[in-house]
Amino acid sequence: MNSYPQAATIAGIDSGGGAGVNADVKTMQERHVFSATIIVAVTAQNTLGVQDFEPVSIKLINEQFKSLADDLNIRACKTGMLADAAHVHAVAQNLQRYDFGPYTLDPVMVAKGGAHLLSDDAIATVRDELIPLATVVTPNLPETEALTGGKIESEADMQAAGHTLQQLGAKNVVVKGGHGANSQTSSDFVLLENGRSFWLSTPRIATKNTHGTGDTFASCITAELAKGKSVEAAIRLAKAFIQAAIADGIDVGHGHGPTNHWAFRKVVQTDAKD
Ligand SMILES: Nc1ncnc2c1ncn2[C@@H]1O[C@H](COP(=O)(O)OP(=O)(O)O)[C@@H](O)[C@H]1O
Ligand SMILES: Cc1ncc(COP(=O)(O)O)c(N)n1
């Protein structure tokens, strides 16, 4: 019998299939990691936007955590859409109650279509209760501004914000540059626990199909951490994975379409288990 590493995603589910838990499950599967899911919110969503959502009761979230802890062997986890302060708090409590391994915090706030997936008053709860628990935090530029309180207008601003996020308690930080102004490259700033930092830059792909890029990137990091890879190796592989997924586009829906979660298998020769 093959034994695959197990990881959990704790997030919202996207009826349109391209982002949230859906992107996480697809990505982890591609990386040969068994994915379990703790659903925090259900969205009515497609590539045109988020039409509605409802959070799941905190009782049921607590029960989902317990169900996994009682039976599975979760070796890494990530969070995505968490809806509001009460749900952020409940997730933080559960992450402290159970050992689900290295934790990747994708601080999802506003969907690409403009819908608020986290209430404004919950930003402080994410900063105070989740960032100190995070092995890796992966904010995009607007999320970095919201968490650090400063404007990000240059690469120097991204670097400074990375250090601020580390001071807030995250062990490792990736400030993602997908929302940056550079039309040639999409550059992410990485700051590791040991203080070393570097940029990961790839050619910017001219496409409107970037729905779920952040989820895909963070869940790929989580999958690699579940295998026991180093944080740096996990982040580097995730950057290559998302680049392939954006570049090899698929045609789904009429708005901001999803990425291609099976594209990476075409560009790598090594086994996804490695
Ligand atoms: N058009 C693009 N071309 C290449 N890489 C991109 C593009 N858009 C986003 N990325 C990359 O995708 C990842 C997710 O970034 P981003 O889109 O900023 O996150 P989010 O989905 O959280 O807003 C990052 O590694 C970023 O550099
Ligand atoms: C359930 C859920 N989680 C996360 C996102 C963010 O993804 P994006 O910013 O690419 O729209 C989303 N749209 N829906």
Automatic annotation (TrEMBL):
Keyword vocabulary terms for this entry: ATP-binding, Kinase, Nucleotide-binding, Thiamine biosynthesis, Transferase
Pathway: Cofactor biosynthesis; thiamine diphosphate biosynthesis; 4-amino-2-methyl-5-diphosphomethylpyrimidine from 5-amino-1-(5-phospho-D-ribosyl)imidazole: step 2/3; Cofactor biosynthesis; thiamine diphosphate biosynthesis; 4-amino-2-methyl-5-diphosphomethylpyrimidine from 5-amino-1-(5-phospho-D-ribosyl)imidazole: step 3/3
Signal peptide extent: none
A GO MF label: hydroxymethylpyrimidine kinase activity
EC category name: transferase
Residues spanning the membrane: none
Keyword Transmembrane applies: no
A Pfam short name: Phos_pyr_kin
GO cellular component, one term: cytosol
Record flagged with keyword NADP: no
UniProt-listed InterPro entries: HMP/HMP-P_kinase_dom (IPR004399), PM/HMP-P_kinase-1 (IPR013749), Ribokinase-like (IPR029056)
EC number, UniProt record: 2.7.1.49, 2.7.4.7
GO biological process: thiamine biosynthetic process
PANTHER family according to UniProt: HYDROXYMETHYLPYRIMIDINE_PHOSPHOMETHYLPYRIMIDINE KINASE THI20-RELATED (PTHR20858:SF17), PHOSPHOMETHYLPYRIMIDINE KINASE (PTHR20858)
Listed NCBIfam families: HMP-P_kinase
Protein's name in the database: Hydroxymethylpyrimidine/phosphomethylpyrimidine kinase
Source taxonomy: Bacteria, Bacillati, Bacillota, Bacilli, Lactobacillales
